[in-house]
Amino acid sequence: xxxxxxxxxxxxxxxxxxxxxxxxxxxxxxxxxxxxxxxxxxxxxxxxxxxxxxxxxxxxxxxxxxxxxxxxxxxxxxxxxxxxxxxxxxxxxxxxxxxxxxxxxxxxxxxxxxxxxxxxxx
Length: 122
Description:
This protein is mostly helical. Helix content is 66%, strand content 0%.
């Protein structure tokens, strides 16, 4: 989640440098791209913001779920260390088919929400 959020923040920063509202505000690097590209980057900038908000909500919900289950990971997020019992077992995937379905649904959702308008726009 950390890498996803950092990557999306870099994308947000980069697309914001080329964004325009086509009325009053133009960002500093708008003169380097065409108006169609600027419009597409502005759309990506606005859409990416909603994706970031969704991932932040998902991240906070996951932390709350861990705390409710008794796994206090908030302290580990700040200190960088998580104390575990002496008996540590490797996690096992109980249902690989469930994992496959979850990944497929996530991929389809990303395609539908993010990439499909881009493909139809081009």
